[in-house]
Amino acid sequence: MKKLNLMMSDPLVGFTKNALINLPNPCSISLLWNKGFMMSMTLVLQIMTGLDSSMNYVPSTEMAFDSVIQMMRDIDEGWVMRYLHMNGASLFFILMYVHMLRGIYFNSPMKLPMVWGSGVIILLATMGAAFMGYVLPWGQMSFWGATVITSMITAMPYLGMDVTQWLWGNFSVSQPTLNRFFSLHFLIPLVFVALALIHLILLHKTGSSNPKGTNTNYDKLKFYKYYLVKDMTYLVLFMVMMVTLCSMEPNLLGEVENFNTASMTTTPAHIQPEWYFLFAYAILRTIPSKLGGVFAMVAAIVIILVLTLKQLTMNNKLSPVKKSKFWVFLVTAVLLTWIGANPVEPPFVGIGQVLTTIYFTLAMML
């Protein structure tokens, strides 16, 4: 009994108990409020499958592509680890985008500015890790995607070319670039874990939002066991969906060009990043100026930080006008994703410019 009391008095045990067992949560929160939990579980899956894949991956421009093929064909359950990791990244972004859209809809940036700011930093870190991971298989789209995206850094005044060559480790994307991306792809998720803990601590300090938009300590339940069971139920359904995707259509979210090994002498007809970058990529292409395009692409992501500076207003759920603006904004982002997947030619360029204008206008009005 004394040992139990001594253990319970430990600060780490106390923090865990308060964060996972006794944490009070609003009674009115719905399915949309469990995306953070599901993202944390998906992150664990990504780390485990990534670690397993790294044991068979060879970070060499001569052998990277073949090592991935060998992993899937010759290593026991190698194809499972590969497809879980590849599709896990896409599903992680789906969860993250839904998580952030829910926050925008229920005015979380205005209510919880510190939590929202840390979430945006996590989004940027995730995008960096995902981009570098996309390059590692060293397929055609991986190589040319890396070439196009990293070349954007040259648009920076004065230091652009120096920073780009430092990132490349050469005068173009080559072996040193692959080494850097492989190392950073491992290191960024470690930073991501630290940021996620900070995000969680800030959230628990201020408390979760809720659909009603109220801030009360009376209408709440402990996280255990009602919310834990609820989250675990949806986690099981999520894993069933993941296994189904990896078993039935593992390359549904992939790119055909990445089935060919990287070649500096052959350029794909249409270069595009993964689907979760397409909305920002479409905005980049709509600006004729290289520097202006890069600025617009970064602004398309960072602009959601501006929401923390706005005055807290009526919940979108209770305002038909604000609700309409939110849904038009969402449809615009989806259409930009579609534009980014199409070639840079009429009428897609003109449509993209109109959608970009609508996107930034609505982002400032949310």
TrEMBL record:
Give the Pfam families listed for this entry: Cytochrom_B_C (PF00032), Cytochrome_B (PF00033)
- What are the Cytochrome b/b6 N-terminal region profile domain coordinates in residue numbering? 1-212
Q: Which residues bind a ubiquinone?
A: 204
- State any GO BP term from the record: mitochondrial electron transport, ubiquinol to cytochrome c
Residues engaged in binding heme b b562:
85, 185
Q: How is the cofactor bound?
A: Binds 2 heme groups non-covalently.
Q: Read off the InterPro entries from this record.
A: Cyt_b/b6_C (IPR005798), Cyt_b/b6_C_sf (IPR036150), Cyt_b/b6_N (IPR005797), Cytb/b6-like_sf (IPR027387), Cytochrome_b (IPR030689), Cytochrome_b_C_euk/bac (IPR048260), Cytochrome_b_N_euk/bac (IPR048259), Di-haem_cyt_TM (IPR016174)
**An annotated GO cellular component:** mitochondrial inner membrane
Question: What residues bind heme b b566, as annotated?
Answer: 99, 199
The question of whether Electron transport is a record keyword is answered with: yes
What is the required cofactor set for this protein?
heme; heme b
Which positions, given as ranges, span the membrane? 80-101, 113-136, 143-161, 181-203, 224-245, 291-312, 324-341
Localization annotation: Mitochondrion inner membrane
Matching entries from CDD domains are given as: cytochrome_b_C, Cytochrome_b_N
Going by the UniProt record, its keywords in alphabetical order are: Electron transport, Heme, Iron, Membrane, Metal-binding, Mitochondrion, Mitochondrion inner membrane, Respiratory chain, Transmembrane, Transmembrane helix, Transport, Ubiquinone
Q: Tell me how this protein sits in the membrane.
A: Multi-pass membrane protein
Q: What residue stretches are annotated with the Cytochrome b/b6 C-terminal region profile domain?
A: 213-366
Q: Which GO terms describe its molecular function?
A: metal ion binding; oxidoreductase activity; quinol-cytochrome-c reductase activity
Complexes and interactors = The main subunits of complex b-c1 are: cytochrome b, cytochrome c1 and the Rieske protein.
User: What is this protein's function?
Assistant: Component of the ubiquinol-cytochrome c reductase complex (complex III or cytochrome b-c1 complex) that is part of the mitochondrial respiratory chain. The b-c1 complex mediates electron transfer from ubiquinol to cytochrome c. Contributes to the generation of a proton gradient across the mitochondrial membrane that is then used for ATP synthesis.
UniProt lists the family membership as follows: Belongs to the cytochrome b family.
What this protein is called in its record is: Cytochrome b
Gene for this chain: CYTB
